[in-house]
Known about the structure:
metalloprotease; 4-stranded antiparallel β-sheet; about 450 residues; metalloendopeptidase activity; Pdz3 Domain; alpha+beta; about 45% helix; transmembrane helix
Amino acid sequence: MTALLYLLGVVLFVGAILVSIGLHELGHMIPAKRFGGKVTQYFIGFGPTVWSRQVGETEYGLKAIPLGGYVKIVGMLPPGATELGEVTYDEHGEQVTRVRKSNTGMFTQLISDARAAEWELVQPGDEDRLFYKMPSWKKIVVMAGGPSVNIIIAFALFWGIYATYGNVVDIEAEAGPPVIDTVSECVIPFSEEGRACTDSDPLAPAYEAGLRPGDVVTSFNGTPVTGWDQLRELIRDNADGDAVIGYERDGTRLTGETSTTVQARPTGDSTETLTEVGFLGVTPTVRYVTETGGPLYTARQMVGMTKDTVVALGQLPVKVWGVAKAIVGVEERAIDSPVSIVGGGRIAGTVSSTDQLDLSQKAVSLAGLVAGFNLFIGLFNFLPLLPLDGGHIASASWEWVRRGWARLRRRPDPGYVDAAKLLPVAYVVASALLVMGVVLIVGDLVVPVQFDA
Length: 453
């Protein structure tokens, strides 16, 4: 039964991601067709074709590797300035002139070949339907449509969760003297947190002072303590000085003496920057509150998620490098490392098969997982790098600005921005993304992220 539930979770997650990919591509295809563009292919997946069907001028289908999708819009690349500007046809409608140029450099030949391959798809009557000829704002709408759909999916799922089940948040204990939840028995470097204490580890100051879970801290070096934020500052500022701690246990007032230890620890939200501060070795008691809300509440929550995702995108190469080191056994895989669709499937299977969650909690967890993937996919595709959608958006935006500036100055139209010149960069980025994708998939198979469901 557990194996079947695990498989069900994997299937539901992968199915939801495939649906998301399909909707992403519709976000490109529908506006492209509405604006008069010609879309010849709509596929979910890559690699060998599993199934396809021709409907009108568009071939719809599925491919074997469910790691993405694409729509083929004719005329993505304009002809080069020194190349033939348009194709011509004979009386039988056969193309007799192709966009071609003699090149000797590797990159120039690559660009020329890409243009030639692009224009082989152009048929008689397509001249006014080419993507590069669309107004800049239409290009932006077409290319932004896909990732925008992913963000809308994420918003809809989070809204459904917050409006029904609610958003469980943890809040530190009410205002007043802080209640201790856990007390560290030893001092472990921040980079090694999570491991067990050894005989060589020094006792934690809090444990040495006699503090235990459930104690209420009332004073620190004679200063009355009113909350956790104040206590943290007192401990950090104390460095390695002596500390006299007043606390209550079961209504009895007690006092403990120790000296705080200096440790390099994060003092803000980021764990990348460590500062040497005083360390006591206690964590606060928290209470869990379920908040419910509608679209405005969801939007506020997603603003915070977006900020976290942008930070994660900036750290992605470093995080993937960490996964690569975990694969070869150099270090353990971090709990916050990125995962591929394989890792997402494993998480979904674990959530579905655990007996620690009821049915509603499993449904919410799976919906949240799919929503999180969609938010990441949407924001990732907005990165201004070819071949991502954001690269095309950046190119069209620059074209719009350049043409608008020329009109204001009453200068000649500078023409279309030639995205083909950025193809070498696109190939480098695509290669890097392929390598990172392979590393994550291998990592999810060999050293999957370990977590408690």
